[in-house]
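Lecture notes, structural biology module. Today: joint structure prediction for complexes of two components.
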Amino acid sequence: MSTEPPAGGAPAPAVQLSAITKRFPGVVANSDVNITVRAGTVHAIVGENGAGKSTLMKILYGMQQPDEGTIAVNGAPVSFSSPADAIRAGIGMVHQHFMLADNLTVLENVVLGSEPRKGVALDFGTARARIAEISAAYGLGVDPDRLVDDLGVGERQRVEILKVLYRGARTLILDEPTAVLVPQEVDELFGNLRDLKAEGLTILFISHKLDEVLSVADDITVIRRGTTVASVSPEGVTARKLAELMVGSALPVPELRESTVTDDAVLTVSGLTVVGADGRTVLDNVSFTIHAGEVLGIAGVEGNGQAELVEALMGIRSCNTGRIVLSGRDITRATTRHRREAGIGYIPEDRHRQGLLLEAPLWENRILGHQTSAPNVRGPLLDRKGAKRDTERIVDEYDVRTPGIDVNASALSGGNQQKLIVGREMSGSPVLLIASHPTRGVDVGAQAAIWEHIRRARAEQLAVLLISADLDELIGMSDTLSVILRGRFVADHDPATVTPEQLGSAMTGAGRED
Amino acid sequence: MRNLTARSVLLGLAAPLGALVFAALVCGIILAATGNSPIDTVDAMATAAQRPRTLVNSLNSATVYYLAAVAVAIGFRMKLFNIGVDGQYRLAAMLSAALAGAAFMDNLPSFLRIALTIGVAMLVGAGWAGLAALLKVTRGVSEVISTIMLNAIATYLVSYLLNPARLAETTPGSNNIGTAKITEGGQVPGIEVSGSSTKVFGLVVLAAVVGFVYWFVLSRTKFGFELKATGLSESAAVASGVSVKKMVVISMLLSGAVAGLVGMPQLLGSSYTYSLDFPPGLGFVGIAVALLGRNHPVGMMVAALLWGFLDNAANALDISGVPREIVLIMQGVIVLSVVVAYELVRRYRVRAEQQAVGKALGRTKTLEEVSA
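The predicted structure, tokenised, for the full assembly:
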């Protein structure tokens, strides 16, 4: 695909979106969006959740048609009525959630849907050669004959990229590509992106992780409330400034005020060991204490036992040895229900899987996890009025933006769903809050609100176990910090003095400095 | 419950009505293609609908179908597929018929006899379903497989027991065999309807009570909430403190107990014996009715009535020369198209709701507005 030079002599932009407007009944998702993506660059598009990034990318990928405005690819105006048109014009998309069949090989996954044929038979030989060629040319390091099931997350993502390249894409749209990756994998991905760029490909990178954007992008466009508010270059801007452009106002910071830690132990865990279904020890002799008014932060690369720790504390997963004592009561063998009744609030890592009934109204979601306590039940009967009234209270106090409490949870944005969960788990005066990635995937406004609620609850003597991948959040919100590595607590840090870099190296087991 | 607006009511009716219209069209085409007049068929059905006897029979069929549908729906609500309602009701009807017909029962007061018969039927149904539940929670056996196999086992068990050497006797003057006839004290009297030679099953009341209890438990009790939550998201239910294994056992037992009731209206209101010609296959009709009625207590009632009417109108079609099999085709097409239609409406609803939320909120608030 050649770049056709326009009259001026400079190469035409790979993609130019002019005055794009998209209305849904009652909502304007995009209004007057203008973006120029230079060929051979990494162009980041940043914005809060719900700012209109996804709609814009769906328009560019032909999944939706704009009401107004034009799209030009390599200087020529185009009109896409389906993703097939976009692919034909050399635009490919790597979705946030991978679309791979686990039980097929890389080769089979890549050719799926555009199988090379020799007569009626499939021509795997040619395909294998092309995959190897593409993989080598862009340094993807993908083996065509491995089973996707055996691949890690980072490798799967490279297969997705390869799939798009195999179909001849010269412009790649990556939708929140780092959301699923651990830091090392992010570095690898960025290496791949630079290789792709060096080969003349153009990359559109959607994200709200600003540090990453700054490290990889050549140009940045900020979207707020459906429209482009700024185009900046990474040299002239800081992450903070970028975030302020995204929100349109000054930013909140995760920080605690004076210490509220008491001597009163709320949760004491001693010698907790959990063996996984495959016989691997996923938690190894973990011991810690959280006091009333204390936030214990746990840092670690994902998959080092955090999820298992949370599930063991909640009674979802049984522990092999060890003791869990909550407010002086041994709850090691207690059921999840009893633990919740004893005052544990739980903000799960994956709110769609564990935190909500998506196809149930908000007020029924208020009941979830609190089926045995007022104001939700009276004896064996549901107290529908009480639950509804209390849902109204949560919606009000926690600023859950919804037209009413009868809409299904699936209709709310991620941030609002999370605020509902936080509000619910803070209800009924819990003694311990287990917060697993409480601000993951929520917008900056909701993030600030959630931090504020945790701070306030801490001041009221709540004990909090905070697990997060956001190191600033961990350092800013914790009274005590522990690092978990391969199922063990390997180091303790003072959040007042530790830097994200020190924490980062402790998480990978590199630096055991202090 | 959602607020009842004209729009939501319309949306709720769109799927079943659309499916009905579509099924009618398909049947019309098939009739025309096979040289039968669709108009005559409609005419014959309309005439049938005016005969009190057909209506009474339809209501009686509907009573039985409704009970079967509720039994199926209890499982459906938590994504548990009790395909074994069929075996459960047959075994339950047979054993309770044997008990109700036994000589010693003659001395008991009528109310106690009937209550005992129904109670045993529920216990047997629950027990048979309980086997599948047990296999599921202890060994991880899919309830679909185990209940289907239990259906087959029930068939053989019933034919083993239905033998003059065991629980049955030969009916004098025929080669039918059945359990001893339940004497009058054990029967449930029917309700007379003028112009009809058949009576309405007295146990139509039982079906209504079961429907009410089903509605009440699901929408008003903690248990019902947990059952629905488990169906909507098992992982979320576990995190909320629900013991899924316990829920599987309890709901399977309940489903089986209601399945045990399925044979009762017929047994105590018309047959008075479990014999070789006791109606089979009601459990499968229950699945279709539960699907059509969307597991909703009122929806299933309407669906059961429709099913009952179609079945009984088939007889009238025979008389007017239209092949009665057209009813089976119609029922099949309704079930298939209703499943598709419900999914389409569901997707539309999700999208409409998200748009409504977007519309109501208009835009995102700024940080100052949030903290203000």
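Point to remember: Confidence is low (pLDDT under 50) at residues 1-8 of chain A.
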